[in-house]
Amino acid sequence: MARIGPEEVRELATLARLQLSEEEVARMTGDLAAILDYVDALRALDTTDVEPMTHAVPFDCPLRADRVAPSLSVEEALANAPRREGSFFEVPRIVPVAGAPEDES
Amino acid sequence: MIDVRGASAVALADGVRAGKWRARDVVDRYLDRIARLDPALGCYLLVDAAGARRQADAVDAAQKAGRDPGPLAGVPLGIKDIFCTRGVETTCASKILRGFVPPYESTATTRLGAAGAVSLGKLNMDEFAMGSSTENSSAGPTRNPWSPAHVPGGSSGGSAAAVAASLCAGATGTDTGGSIRQPAALCGVVGMKPTYGRVSRYGVIAFASSLDHPGPFGRTVEDAAALLEVMAGPDPLDATSIPQPVGAYRQAARAGAAGLAGVRLGVPTEYFQAGMDPEVETSVRAAIDELARAGAKIVPVSLPHTKYAIATYYLICTAEASSNLARFDGVRYGHRTAQARSLDELYAKTRGEGFGAEPKRRIMLGAYVLRAGYYEAYYGKALRARRKIADDFSAAFAGCDAIVTPTSPVPAFKFGERSADPLQMYLADVYTVAPDLAGIPALSQPCGLTRAGLPIGLQTIGPALGEEICFRVAGAFEARTDWHQQLPPDAAP
After folding, report:
1. Maximum distance among all alpha carbons in chain A?
2. Rounded to whole angstroms, how far apart are CA atoms B140 and B136?
3. How far apart are CA B484 and CA B190, in angstroms?
4. What is the pLDDT of residue A101?
5. Model pLDDT for residues B43-94, shown as the tens digit of each residue
6. What number is the average pLDDT over the span B395-422?
């Protein structure tokens, strides 16, 4: 039973910030439908009153002492930046400037 | 100097520590083998010859000066490219991380280096550890040293193939649904996935955080134990690392030689059903008979929720992956699209260009199952099923000390045989995903060869923090058989 169509795949791709070609959308629609059919088997399992298991071993979130310690320098943190300006990561303009031409960077 | 082909890591370290040979010579022999044999196999994404020689020289200097060069002195290792290595490119075999040079080092590789081990370079894998064949690497596949037409398994296929072909004396891997044990089985080496949190995940690029288990590959059971002893332990940089002291794994591996008197081994009926290759079944049943002759009592056990494991696993791992892979957006590191006029476009194009088909599929499936309205039916349901699967193991361990099963239902398959259908590929993990969901230790070791000459793996599963019983059982099998001494052909002239 195909419960997912190309429209929903496109919508999900937008939400996931993933540009897909039309060919990829078509393939993805078929793949996801087949996988969702397979995982449907879980519906047969009675999980009434079963606590969700979010962690593999019993786990109390440990706290460390709140002390200042060395961390990466600005230069190290920026060393892999595809584009930088001074001590910042550079990205395309987010807020449009009134009257300015569209940023083509 | 010994021939490094088929050499064990602990034997190499013992020789370096005793001054019988130099770490530098050991490293040079492995670098020679890599130069000669790896072009046909494709295990390494990056060979750091200069770095390896520098580390080896430091080990030799320490040994000469009378300082302790460490338990793994001069042991040349291959590092799965999912472990961040300071100053050495780390890509997870993905285009989106091409050129990324980490400014920090993973805890596991830091500890291996401090113990005297030497890193030869970075090993191939399925992109972001998503796959069971290494066909999903953006750099191209790794070939199985036993047969170049066959896959090495995955996702740690480069690690398993490199150890099998003696292109390193041991390797690191990660196991989220079987990514250490399945390639170990398909390449005829030992692979160990410890208890969740036993090895720190700090500096290991995240795929599915509640399921990611770093661990070792070795030629022998004791080699894997020696590597795990160093890699394991609590780490303030990973809040999910567990505080208990690390066990005496090498000692447990050696203790196996004295037999398994008093050990109860469970054999789950659900793991011997339709879909298993008959040669795999014959070898694994023969291995269980051998363990009985070693003194173990074989008892039937039931893991009734096994049939839900794959579905549960793919719902949880894709949900976590879609969240973890959100960080790859072209802003701070890695690939950035050349053409984006807005930030939204920069994200979407960078990710569309940078991710391969499998990460895209998992990001999309994860986004789907986490969507408002579907969350409870898919992700919530899977978290409940996960507990039922984990409870199966707790119940089984009330009546046995360890569980023995096949590692993979089939030996190595051919390139392209499963890659066209993602679901077929997922089903290759049928015997390995449940211990990941339960977070319990499991080890694969070689236990046979098919008539076509492909390795078969035996899996030993222990209770939480039961690494020692896994190593003892595996050590017992290894002491009584010679499958671990079988080597693939040295292909190149």
Report:
1. 61
2. 8
3. 8
4. 59
5. 999 999 999 999 999 999 999 999 999 999 999 999 999 999 999 999 999 9
6. 95
Are B343 and B402 in a shared domain? no
pLDDT tens-place string over residues B256-269:
999 999 999 999 99
B119 classed as catalytic:
no
Q: Do B244 and B29 form a contact (C-beta atoms < 8 A)?
A: no
| Statement: residue A1 has pLDDT above 70 | no
Beta strands in B138-227 (DSSP E): 170-175, 190-193, 213-218
Scanning B232-379, the segments in alpha helix (DSSP H) are 249-255, 278-293, 309-324, 343-354, 357-369
pLDDT digits (tens, 9 = 90+) for B302-314: 999 999 999 999 9
Quote ipTM for the complex.
0.92
Q: Is the pLDDT of residue A57 over 60?
A: yes
| Residue, of B20 and A99, whose pLDDT is higher | B20
* B360–A28 C-beta distance less than 8 A: yes
> Taking CA B245 as the corner, what is the angle to CA B237 and CA B465, rounded to the nearest 5 degrees?
95
C-alpha atoms less than 13 angstroms from C-alpha of A24 in its C-beta half-sphere: 18
- Boundary residue ending a domain (B383, B410, B432): B383
Task: State whether B101 and A80 contact (CB < 8 Å).
Answer: yes
Q: Catalytic residue at B155?
A: yes
Model confidence over B3-35: pLDDT tens digits?
A: 899 999 999 999 999 999 999 999 999 999 999
- B147 classed as catalytic: no
Q: Is the dihedral of CA B321, B327, B333, B339 positive or negative?
A: positive
Residue length of chain B: 493
pLDDT at A6 over 80: yes
Q: Comparing C-alpha atoms, which of B405, B411, B184, B149 is closest to residue B277?
A: B411
Nearest-angstrom CA–CA distance, A90 and A105: 10
Q: Where are the domains of chain A?
A: 6-44
For A6-44, CATH number out of 1.10.760.10, 1.20.1250.20, 1.10.20.60, 3.40.50.720 equals 1.10.20.60
Q: Out of B383, B404, B438, pick the residue that ends a domain.
A: B383
Give dist(CA B44, CA B124) in Å, integer. 6
The answer to whether the Cβ–Cβ distance between B346 and A92 falls below 8 Å is: yes
Asked if residue B263 lies in contact with residue B472, where contact means CB atoms within 8 angstroms, the answer is yes
Compare CB distances from A17 to B348, B353, B423 and report the shortest one's residue: B348
By C-alpha distance, which of A72, A69, A2, A89 is closest to A37?
A2
